[in-house]
Design goal:
The complex is a heterodimer of chains A (728) and B (149). In chain A, 29% of the residues lie in helices and 23% in strands. Chain A is built from 19 helices and 29 strands. By secondary structure, chain A is α+β, with helices and mostly antiparallel strands. In chain A, the strands form 8 sheets. Chain A has a 7-stranded mixed sheet with strand order 11-12-9-19-16-17-18. A 5-stranded mixed sheet of chain A has the order 14-22-21-20-15. In chain A, strands 23, 24, 25, 28 and 29 form a 5-stranded mixed sheet that branches. Chain A has 3 domains: 188 residues, Aldehyde Oxidoreductase, domain 4, CATH 3.30.365.10; 150 residues, Aldehyde Oxidoreductase, domain 4 (2-Layer Sandwich); 336 residues, Aldehyde oxidase/xanthine dehydrogenase, molybdopterin binding domain (Aldehyde Oxidoreductase, domain 4, 2-Layer Sandwich). The longest helix of chain A has 23 residues. Chain B is 36% helix and 14% strand. The N and C termini of chain B lie far apart (44 Å). Chain B has 6 helices and 5 strands, in the order ββαββαβαααα. Chain B has a 5-stranded mixed sheet with strand order 2-1-5-3-4, with helices on both faces. In chain B, α3 packs across α6. The chains are: A alpha+beta (728), B alpha+beta (149). At the A-B interface, α6 and α18 of A face α1, α3, α4, α5 and α6 of B. Chain B: It holds the Pfam family Fer2. Chain B: It comes from Bradyrhizobium vignae.
Chain lengths: 728, 149
């Protein structure tokens, strides 16, 4: 028995959480005499495995490691656990473990990273097992109490029934006993056909507070004695802070301190953020902008255009046959050059984090898409070891990939470190947020297609030139210098595979990395690859004198899942029947994040420059749909994000800085501009794909192809505002 | 110092008269449901009611708001009864990240007060808030549900 206890101790390492704001849960350990260890939540209720806490009143607390930023996966993940747990869904609540607690328990909650549309698909297996494990333990505890075999007992809706005798008990009543049992080594998961909760569009678990103003986002965190900081980082990326004249603002109302943040930024700390921001604007600052101040959008475009030249080196991402030779000898050739600009995530809530640093502890409260990365940033910036640091996650006012980065967390700690014992809330102004994004990378693409005498596409050369995200953010993921993610949507195989069969194919990337920091922007490299490929597919269809849908279908015989979603949107939008008078259609498909998606748009165009989008149909095959109501919202929201970028987006560079400063120069779609999105879900089962991002890829090409159908004009660069095209 | 009447209570706040009302509400009155999104009256996240009219509080100074009846998202419910817009938002699961929704709800509540049965064109004209998650479809459907109730 003693040996058993020590094994339990080892497995569930002792952690003390701090019961502070946003802490989510605190964990204690009690070791009954002679019995195994029980891990307890803050309120004393026992854990039944790491994912589930059951309270005496039958409330089930499900631990969620991934972050909720609006995409709904907090609810979806809870559904996955509850499905296997067989608990009463109406009594389910959730909590976030902290990264510090997870690290101290040998990462019992796995990966916290919430990007790449992986929240559900990457954790579905182990969280369902977490639910099943708890169910087995709870049933075993009831069976033990009744002195009957567990095999004679069943569980449903948090009630355990001994079938032969009809006796019943509830999860809350047996939770204490269940927590003392050794978890089963393996559990069997349900066959998807037996799912009752997975696949249902149950309501989100986090809505009420979002309608009353009670939801706490990072910007809303309040701690006793807290001060507020406003920051300005060198507007030229790579530049440095030279000097500032603190005396000019020292006497301003509320100002407590002016601090240098690293070697690139300065922050004003004041009683209120408004005072901090006002003083920061009055603070004379001199920057050492460095050579990057010579860079402009024009100079970047010129450099990228050089990369389109075949003489320049490039990484080959997808290849078969001999595209160059086939093109050289072809009966007919089509060539086009496209481009896609930088984009800012522009989350509604600007970047912020609150840090409290003392000599022996550093805690941060923030919205983050990656709790463990934020935790690592706290360790690094504070210089304290893991057991003295933690990150308390709060709701994100949008993420879209931006909050997977930790620059703002690091800054908050660097400021707090200069004021030990005082909690500091660092909030970026919208202008700072626009100036210091991690931008959607800039690229250009030259495509050449070749036909034989019978108008069959015999070759395609797709030459991408531009920025690599991994080069900047995860250089360890490069493969002999190549960024494999650059080929998202046009890759040979995998979760973002090309959906067409072309006998001679060459897809390559001439990597060019300007100084503007790139990031994972919702949809990431699928966005521009889908625009380039799907708009060019339309150009090829036109050159072949064929219908864009039929032309695609002929190339998709070996890609049945790609074809199925394309067919689904074509059918729903009525592709083969005439559109209403003056209305024109466009279609597009792509694969990304393990899912197959397609979109179709109906638009009308006035004077060649005013677009009215009448209708959007979208189709998605993510393998399994956990919550159709949330999938529908993600698909519709993807069009708002993708079309906002198409019409209004685009960040330009002048003197090494981003020119756009706020929503007046980086606009976003409004309700009047957005039609209803009709979503067709065609989950084919057998795989788990992502939902939050892939659809964005088809938003822009569906509309651009419809614009060509309406006007006969090809648009090959984004945003449309640069060409004086806007919403009607 | 300024006297502001927020959600039926008159508060004496240590705040300069040229401070944007948004920041007086958030930092001085401590009501954080009203959100900062842009500071230039573009996005609508900071929408509150001033004498019943939806206005962007980042573009109003404290001195302009003095003597007016200010209602924030926290004051929209009547006691324990949520406002019909809040109820509809919950029933139809409108919010995604939710950050813009305080402002969205305040804008919709003001619209419905003025036009209880708004057309799509009325909605298009009155609701100009930015939502980066893209909840527009649910917003529109929820407004029509309320109007047809």
């Amino acid at each position: 028995m003693n040996k058993h206890v020590s094994l339990q101790m080892n497995r569930r390492a002792f952690v003390i959480g701090s019961a502070t704001l946003g802490a989510g849960l605190a964990i204690g350990l009690d070791i009954p005499f002679g019995g195994p260890a029980v891990v307890r939540a803050a309120d004393g209720s026992p854990e039944i495995g790491a994912w589930v806490v059951v309270r005496p009143d039958d409330t089930v607390v499900i631990r969620i490691a991934r972050s909720e930023m609006g995409q709904g996966s907090l609810t979806g993940l809870a559904q996955l656990v509850a499905e296997e747990l067989e608990c009463d869904w109406t009594k389910v609540t959730t909590e976030y473990p902290t990264p510090g607690q997870s690290v101290a328990r040998k990462r019992v909650w796995g990966d916290f990273s919430t990007g790449g549309s992986r929240g559900i698909r990457s954790s579905q297996d182990y969280v369902r097992k977490g639910g099943a494990t708890a169910r087995v333990m709870l049933i075993q505890a009831a069976a033990d109490a009744w002195k009957v075999p567990a095999s004679e007992c069943t569980a449903a809706n948090s009630v355990i029934t001994h079938t032969p005798s009809g006796r019943t008990t509830t999860y809350g009543k047996v939770a204490e006993a269940a927590a003392k049992l050794t978890p089963p080594a393996d559990v069997k998961l349900k066959d998807p056909k037996d799912w009752k909760l997975i696949g249902k569009g149950v309501k989100r678990l986090d809505t009420v507070d979002k309608t009353t103003g009670a939801m706490v986002y990072g910007i809303d965190v309040k701690l006793p004695g807290m001060l507020n900081a406003a920051i300005k980082d060198c507007p030229v990326f790579g530049g440095k802070l030279k000097s500032y004249d603190e005396a000019k603002v020292a006497g301003m109302k509320g100002v407590k301190k002016v601090v240098t943040v690293g070697d690139t930024a300065v922050a004003v700390v004041a009683d209120t953020w408004w005072h901090a921001k006002t003083a920061l604007e009055a603070l004379p600052i001199t920057w050492d902008e460095g050579d990057n101040a010579k860079v402009s959008s024009e100079s970047i475009a010129k450099w990228l255009a050089e990369g389109l030249d075949d003489a320049q080196p490039a990484y080959v991402g997808n290849k078969n046959g001999d595209a160059k030779a086939a093109i050289a000898g072809a009966a007919k050739k089509v060539e086009a050059v496209y481009s896609y600009p930088y984009q800012n995530h522009a989350t509604m809530e600007p970047m912020n984090a609150t840090a409290l640093y003392t000599a022996d502890k550093c805690e941060v409260w923030c919205g983050t898409q990656n709790g463990e990365a934020a935790f690592a940033a706290v360790l690094e910036a504070s210089g304290l070891p893991a057991e003295k640091c933690d990150v308390h996650k709060v709701m994100l006012g949008g993420g879209f990939g931006r909050r997977g980065q930790t620059d703002y967390v690091r800054q908050a700690v660097m400021i707090a470190k200069q004021m030990p014992g005082t909690p500091i809330k660092l909030l970026w102004s919208r202008e700072e947020d626009m100036a210091h994004g991690k931008y959607h990378p800039v690229t250009q693409c030259k495509m050449t297609g070749a036909f034989d005498a019978n108008n069959n596409l015999i070759a395609l050369h797709y030459r991408l030139s531009g920025q690599s995200i991994l080069f900047s953010l995860r250089p360890e993921a490069l493969q002999n210098g190549m960024d494999p993610a650059a080929f998202q949507g046009v890759a040979q195989s995998g979760e973002a595979a090309f959906g067409y069969s072309v006998p001679n194919l060459l897809i390559e990337h001439a990597m060019r990395n300007p100084h503007v920091p790139p990031g994972f922007w919702r949809g990431v490299n699928v966005n521009h690859n889908a625009i380039y490929m799907e708009c060019f597919m339309d150009e090829l269809a036109q050159a072949a004198g064929q219908d864009p849908l039929e032309f695609r279908r002929k190339l998709m015989g070996n890609h049945p899942k790609h074809l199925a979603v394309l067919n689904a949107v074509a059918e729903k939008i009525g592709w083969t029947t005439p559109a209403p008078q003056g209305v024109y259609r466009g279609i597009a498909q792509v694969m990304g994040y393990g899912s197959y998606v397609a979109g179709a748009a109906e638009i009308s165009v006035v004077d060649g420059s005013k677009i009215k989008v009448h209708r959007i149909v979208a189709s998605t095959d993510p393998g399994y749909v956990v919550n159709p109501a949330q999938v529908e919202r993600q698909v519709a929201g993807s069009f708002v994000y993708g079309l906002s970028a198409l019409f209004y987006g685009g960040c330009t560079v002048k003197d090494g800085k981003i020119e756009q400063t706020n929503f007046d120069t980086y606009n976003s779609m409004r309700i009047s501009e957005m039609p209803k999105v009709e979503t067709v879900m065609v989950p084919s089962g057998g795989f788990w794909g992502g939902v939050g991002e892939p659809t964005i890829g088809v938003a822009a090409p569906a509309v651009l192809n419809a614009y060509f159908a309406a006007t006969g004009k090809r648009i090959r660069s984004v945003p449309l505002r640069d060409q004086n095209i806007t919403f009607a | 110092m300024a006297n502001l009447t927020i959600n039926g209570k008159t508060l004496t706040l240590d705040v300069e008269p040229d401070t944007p009302l948004l920041w007086a509400i958030r930092e001085n009155a401590g009501l954080t449901g009203t959100k900062y999104g842009c500071g230039i009256a573009q996005c609508g996240a900071c929408t509150v009611h001033i004498d019943g009219v939806a206005m962007r509080s980042c573009g109003l100074s404290v001195s302009e708001a003095e003597g007016k009846k200010i209602t924030t998202i926290e004051g929209l419910a009547s006691g324990d009864s949520l406002h019909k817009v809040q109820e509809a938002w919950i029933a139809q699961d409108v919010p995604q990240c939710g950050y813009c929704q305080s402002g969205m709800i305040m804008a919709v509540a003001a619209l419905l007060n003025e036009k209880p049965k708004p057309t799509d064109a009325d909605i298009d004209e009155a609701i100009t808030n930015i939502c980066r998650c893209g909840t527009f479809q649910q917003v529109r459907e929820a407004i029509h549900t309320i109007a047809s109730a």
